[in-house]
Amino acid sequence: MSRERMDAFFARTMASDLLADALALYRNNPGLVDTQEAVARRLGVSARRFAPEVEAMKRVGVLKEEQAGKFRLLFYDRAADALLGEFVGQKVSKKAGRAPKR
Fold first, then answer.
1. Residue 32, helix vs strand vs coil
2. CATH classification of the domain holding 78
3. Is the CB of residue 62 less than 8 Å from the CB of residue 68?
4. Residue 91: CB partners within 8 Å, gap ≥ 6?
């Protein structure tokens, strides 16, 4: 996962309530495996409205997609989320003027 992609994702997350809600949904339910349409329904939006957020999460690797029969299932990658969480922690620490804890 490149630093540029994480930067872009971080900026998008700060600007998109839907993306932040999707990340919260997956973080609170890390074992969630479902279709894009079903996840969108959980978030109260259409699959079309949710599609750009899915693509953003797939680009940074926190969301993966696999074919299962006739369904394309989304699932959360906890390892990629840990890397993203570390990156966000560093960004927040820099903004607050503190060095990140190690």
1. coil
2. 1.10.10.10
3. no
4. 10
Burial (0-12, 13-18, 19+ Cβ within 10 Å), 39: buried
Taking a C-beta distance cutoff of 8 angstroms, is the pair 54, 69 a contact?
no
The answer to whether residue 100 sits within a structural domain is no
pLDDT digits (tens, 9 = 90+) for 11-36: 656 667 898 889 889 989 989 999 99
Q: Could you give the angle at the alpha carbon of 22 between the alpha carbons of 45 and 29, nearest 5°?
A: 120
Amino acid at 89: G
- pLDDT tens digit sequence for 40-82: 999 999 999 999 999 988 988 889 999 999 999 999 998 887 7
